[in-house]
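To illustrate the input format used throughout this study, we show a single complete record. The first block contains the structure-token representation of the backbone; no residue identities are included at this stage. The design step must infer an amino acid for every position from geometry alone.
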């Protein structure tokens, strides 16, 4: 084949790449913020909040039952000096209700923090801003004295602000936090002791103290459900198209 014929064939038949390749969906997706799914975590958090509210409501009912029954003639369960009298059937059942509430409470705390960790990460990605309280503050803020008065609420409020700029903070956030503080500090004396017999004695003599504290915790659990729903909803409006 002559050089001229070879050049003609190549010039006429050789494929020419005269267009720009379209980026693959995988490459395009990498430019979007890395968002975490929140719907499942929200459902679990709501379920455990409901169970916690029911458990504390049962505690309050049992405390009223104890107050109505009255303290036995033998005195309180804790007789002092390490001596404990045998429990009545009602007192024994209160121990069971209290223990069940403790297990449910631990599950609720774990589920709520998992949800809060996810929505906080998403809020940071959506807004591009750094949280005021990051890292271990998500966990330490609930147990450190003084810090636990406002930092957890601030974390939740900033998540909403970064997820829905310009939107008003849901009222449920402030209601949830106020009721939680009432419940927490109203029962701090007997919660910290971990002695159920002390609560039973209190129910016999001053039932309004544990009843008011437990009722506030029930209200906080209900308000917490609305908090989870509200913040999850505003994030899903912005994240769900990217997650599907």
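Output of the design step:
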């Amino acid at each position: 084949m002559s050089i001229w014929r070879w050049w003609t064939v190549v010039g006429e038949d050789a494929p020419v790449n005269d267009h720009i390749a379209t980026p693959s969906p995988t490459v395009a997706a990498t430019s979007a913020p890395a968002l975490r799914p929140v719907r499942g975590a929200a459902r679990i958090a709501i379920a455990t909040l409901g169970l916690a509210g029911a458990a504390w409501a049962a505690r309050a009912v049992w405390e009223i039952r104890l107050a109505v029954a009255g303290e036995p003639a033998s005195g309180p369960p804790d007789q002092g000096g390490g001596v404990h009298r045998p429990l009545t059937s009602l007192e024994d059942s209160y121990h069971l209700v209290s223990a069940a509430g403790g297990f449910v409470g631990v599950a609720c705390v774990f589920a709520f923090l998992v949800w809060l960790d996810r929505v906080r990460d998403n809020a940071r990605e959506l807004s591009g801003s750094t949280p005021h309280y990051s890292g271990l503050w998500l966990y330490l803020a609930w147990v450190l004295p003084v810090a636990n008065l406002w930092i957890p609420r601030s974390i939740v409020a900033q998540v909403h602000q970064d997820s829905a700029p310009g939107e008003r903070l849901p009222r449920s956030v402030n209601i949830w936090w106020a009721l939680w503080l009432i419940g927490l500090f109203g029962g701090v004396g007997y919660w910290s002791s971990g002695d159920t017999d002390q609560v039973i004695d209190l129910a016999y003599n001053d039932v309004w103290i544990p009843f008011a504290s437990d009722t506030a915790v029930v209200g906080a659990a209900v308000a917490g459900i609305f908090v989870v729903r509200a913040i999850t909803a505003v994030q899903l409006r912005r994240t769900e198209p990217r997650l599907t």
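Structural context for interpreting the output: The longest strand covers residues 78-80. Residues 190 and 199 are 6 Å apart (CA to CA).
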